[in-house]
Every structure is written in C-alpha cells, then in structure tokens.
Amino acid sequence: MIRIKDIAEKAGVSPTTVSNVIHGKAGRVSKETVEKINRILEEMNYVPSLSARMLAREHSGLIGVVLGYTREGMKYALEDPFIAELVGSLEYQIQEKGYYMMLVTRHKGRDLMEQILGWNLEAMISIGLGEREIRKIRGRFSGPMAVIDGYCPLPEGVINVRTDDRGGGYLMGKYLLKKGHRRLLFLTDNDESVDHERWLGVKEALEEERVEDAASRHILVPEDPSRRRRQYLEMLPFFREQSALFFASDLYAVEALNFLQDRGIRVPEELSVAGFDDVAYAKLSRPALTTVRQNVGEKARRSVEALIRKINGETVGGEYRISTFLVERKSVSGRKTTEERS
Fold first, then answer.
1. What digits encode the pLDDT tens for the residues 306-342?
2. Short-list 321, 309, 20, CA closest to 164
3. Full strand arrangement of the beta sheet holding 324-327
4. Contact 137, 126 (CB under 8 A)
5. Which pLDDT score, from 0 to 100, does residue 76 have?
6. Are the C-beta atoms of 306 and 106 separated by less than 8 Å?
7. pTM value?
C-alpha cells in the first residue's frame, strides 16, 4: 500500500503538504510543488481513500436516493426504463455538485430505514415512497430531503419536485381529440397520484369537447404482465371499436403496440396508440411512439440544486413543477370526423 509518507519523502515535502494537495487544499502550496506532487501521484498510481477524502472535507459527501418504487413483474426497480433514466440523471447531477450518490432500494430482510440511517447521508431524495414512509423517515432523518413526484401531504421543509402530470394528460387528450379521436381510452394500472393526475387532465379535455361518456374512457388494467395480456385478449373486440389508446406510461404503450400488431391490428391505420414519459425506446418502437415528454434531466437538476442550497443554509421553495410537452411521432394518425366522411 502506498502511503502519503512515501510520496512526501519522494517529493521532499511534508506529509501535510501532500495531504493538502490530494484533498484540494493547496492554496498555500506553490504551483511547482503541486505539479511535482501530482506527477509523483500519477507515477505511483496513488488512489486516495474515499472515506479519507470525506473525512478531510468534514462531511460525508453522500446524498441518498431512496427507491420505494416497485412494478409487478420486474425483479429490480431499475428494470423500468423511466426509473433507470431518472436515477442516472440524479447521479450525474449529484456528481456535478461534487457529491456522491448512495442508492437505497428495497431488499428482503433489510428495512429502508435501517439502510438510510446506516449511512451518514447529508441529504436524501425519495422516489415512490408513500406518505407514511416519508413521515417515518422525516421523524428520524433531519437533513435536507426532497421527494420526486409527491402527491401526498408532505412534512414541513420537505421539497417536492414533480411533473405537471395533469397538464400532460390534458395536452395529449386535446391532441387526440383534435386528430378526430373521440373514441379514445386512457389505460393505467392504478388511479392514484401520478396516474390519477394524468387521467384528470384527459378527462378535462374530454369534457371540454363534450364527449358524453367521458368517465367510461378510463380503463384500469392489471399490473401483473401475464394478467394484463389476458385482459387485452378479452378486450380485443372492444379495442377494435375504439380509435385511440392513450397509456399512462410508454412501457405499457410499447407493450400494447406489439400486442396489437401481433394480432393483425395496424397501428396507427386502424388504431392509434400514445404514451407518457418519452423514455429512450419510445423513438425506437415501430411505429415510433407519440408521447408526452416529462423533462427527466430538469427534474433531477431541480431536486439536486434545491438540496445543495439547503445544505448551504439557503432558503428554497417548497415545490417545483416541471412542464411537459407533446412529442409527435408515427403511432397516431388523423381520424376523419362524421361530417368529413359524409
């Protein structure tokens, strides 16, 4: 093992000087000495201890990202492409600020609280936790805390960074109606938080256009993939009577694209399909998916910047709402109205 003492002897300086250079405290060290020490560090392949660097900075440098999110049919949360993109964006933003990300996920036999308190986190970001868990954590964790996509009452001081989900649902609803799709369905596996807000946006668009059976346009499907496919098979004659299917996530939308086309239903010629999120594979599907983009990078940036400001003792807002916009690709076609056909 290479010691700081060994480097100091080779450079002809004190161990304290070497330590200051390694830990970025070289303000009183000459430029020539800094260059000499760095050259020796490189020659000797010296890699500083992460724990020692944290100790030298007098704080852990760790920001926890806590994933309470699970989707049935997936073993790991990061199998979901949206969650993977969000976590990747958070890791990038955290490193840009000079901190390190500690990912905390659910594991059998290991309580989330045990994992959170087991590390000396300076701040934390929660994704997919319910109100009870957030309040439990807040009761024992005093550092700055942010929630991504919180749709429950949050404890005082907890920052909420969320997408304008209702606005996104409304945006797609108006777009499909403008394309002539009055026989459209909104499909989701739950009617809570994010998905509920997206439905409310669609419902508002339907009601504005005086679609009489607006409430019946909301369809709940099973979260389990095999049960969902069975329901799709049972509903196939009903789907054929519709003109557009709008799914609450791109994951379900792309799955439906494949399901429909495997059964001879042409998309978008016979049935249009739309999604929400604009994950990476939305543009890779065939046809490429029309969807609502939520700016994941902006969501990550706002979350991390707000926490860093809190760490530095600054005052920050309680909620940040990220705008959405529509991405038009090839999975939705125009539908002639009754008047145009006649």
1. 999 999 999 998 999 999 999 999 999 997 543 334 3
2. 321
3. 218-220, 184-188, 244-247, 272-277, 290-294, 324-327
4. yes
5. 65
6. no
7. 0.79
